Automatic annotation (TrEMBL):
It is a lipid-anchor; GPI-anchor. Residues 366-385 have a biased composition (Acidic residues). This is Fasciclin-like arabinogalactan protein 2. Residues 339-397 are annotated as: Disordered. Residues 29-177, 190-329 form the FAS1 domain.
Amino acid sequence: MRRPLPLSAVSLALPLLLILLLLPSAADAHNITKILAKHPEFSTFNHYLSLTHLAGEINRRLTITVLALDNSAMSALLDKHFSVGTIKNVLSLHVLVDYYGAKKLHQLSKGTTLSSTLFQATGSATGTSGYVNITNLKGGKVGFASEDNGGDLNSFYVKSVMELPYNISILQISKIITSADAEAPTAAPLSLNLTDILPKQGCKAFYDLLVAAGAAETYQSNIDGGLTVFCPTDAALNAFLPKYKNLTAAHKLSLLLYHGIPIYLSQQMLKSNNGVVNTLATDGGAKYDFTIQTDGEDVKVKTKVVTAMVTATLIDSEPLVVYEIDKVLQPRELFKAVPNSGDEEAPAPKTAAKKKSKAPSPSASDGEEDEADSPIGSDESDGEPADQKSDKDAAFGSDGRRSIAVMMLSLWLGVLLV
């Protein structure tokens, strides 16, 4: 018979398990865009973090410090009429790849330090020009300067905007950190024209639909700010065309816009972005969202109606990426949701099919989709309750994580007390 562990062992194990329970996961990672959206004085800075795709890089980092510029300071930068590429270099100099809270700024060892930045990490910086000098001055004043400007501390700490030790810190500084290297002219980005790209990458059938429905212009206008496109294969489109033809013009447009996300998501970002995302069709009360779910190396795009598999990356040239998928994405705003939808579409029960025979679906689709997927009349809602559980399971939210942690805690305590 096993001897029970002493109470001291239990008391030591319990806090450790509670810590594991409360630890943040990748699903709780910071989002710089959402954080700054709460502070309108940084709206211009926030906009350019998204436009230059620095926001995505910041969000991927586990430890980061953002030196934020208010709208007035950003005006001084924009008055120089730099290209977007140069603005990206300048702003990347304002993102430190280490954690600095307000307290740490005033407790620097020897009163000064050098911190590497995202500009240094890009490899575009020459020598140490991608490092920022941080100096604690007399009277509690803290100055910032790039390493290549001769030590001229031209920008100063204003306030702490948000701190989440030791994950992300957002500190406001008074002026742009100037750097001749960062402000050097950059080559203009290659022109990305969907008319040239999609037909040549195996998406001609999909692109023809975009043009016919008037959606191509919306896709093209979103490229500069970042665009992710999910292109169904020709076989998937051909099987879906009977249903597509029965949609109204407005619904056709919504369906096609539903296949685009207004941000750039590389393959790595896509695999780490498990959860619900908005689309080009998202507008006010019409959600038009879907869930991205990773299963090992496989990436699935799940709506309430179908689950599509990402089968290939057709082009990845930031700020545009196009993925091939094996099914047409059908939003629940336009099609009947499949009850308790899992990884695959649920076939309609035979008894249900008999009941529905009195009101057949507007079109057939060669048997690939069942009657539960037929178009519905409203652009707002299909009238059925949302399957909230599916969202939580797909995104593996904090509630599911806590449930598992509680279960592990119970099992562990049971072992300790036997």
